[in-house]
Amino acid sequence: MSHDPTRSPARRPRRLASLIVVLLTVLLAPGGAAPAQEATPIAPIGAGTGGASVPCGERLGIGDATVACLTIIHAAADAGPVDLSVDGAVLLTGVAAATSTGFFALPAGSYDLTVTASGQPETVLLDLPDQPLEAGTAIEVALVGSQDDSTLTGLVLPVAPPAPAMGDASVRVVQAIPDAPPLDIGLETGETLIAGLVPLTASDYLTVPAAATSVVVRPAGAAEVLFPVPGFTPLAGGTLTIYALGTVTNPTGITLLTVVVPG
């Protein structure tokens, strides 16, 4: 990864030299562009819905209340390593497939975010001009889809679940398997938690107990299990995004990538 403090002369001055790049550990378990959503503060630490929101920089330990927090998730089925540029300046290089950069901090503002093939700035895979990053908010930007079938696109996902009750956590699933049918995610007992999640979309947040949980993935409305999601334990008061990525044509290559924000 590299950090280039220069800025594009065509853009208003940026304090890129002040960028704080702090990587969090991200767990990797075996197993037409989307519109940006308005960012809102991530869920507060602690129980109930009455507590004050904690700015992402403080919650993640990467800055103060004035910064925004961003992570890039490379969940494309067949794209090689990628680079991230911010306002034309290369910030991160060589982000491998099926990985996350971890959260890093940027001063609040609007940025041109560009994802290119690594070392090939002319090969633009994702272009998000004037992406707003508000102080205190956290956003996941995911590269999903497939280059081969021209479904490569981006998801801009605010980390903004409802505040969980004491002992609970918030979990959502991103269906990043481009050739999969709509999927149901449910318990082994047959109960469906998320129904009909179509490719290259994200579910709403679910509130779940912060305890070991195992779920299975089925074609929507069917009993057949496509693959299990191994046991995971979300952190009380935290948020967890599970990315299912790979292709149905190569089921042994389906993997799960988790992005965690602690409580």
UniProtKB/TrEMBL annotation:
It comes from uncultured Thermomicrobiales bacterium. This is DUF4397 domain-containing protein. Residues 70-185 form the DUF4397 domain. It comes from the Bacteria.
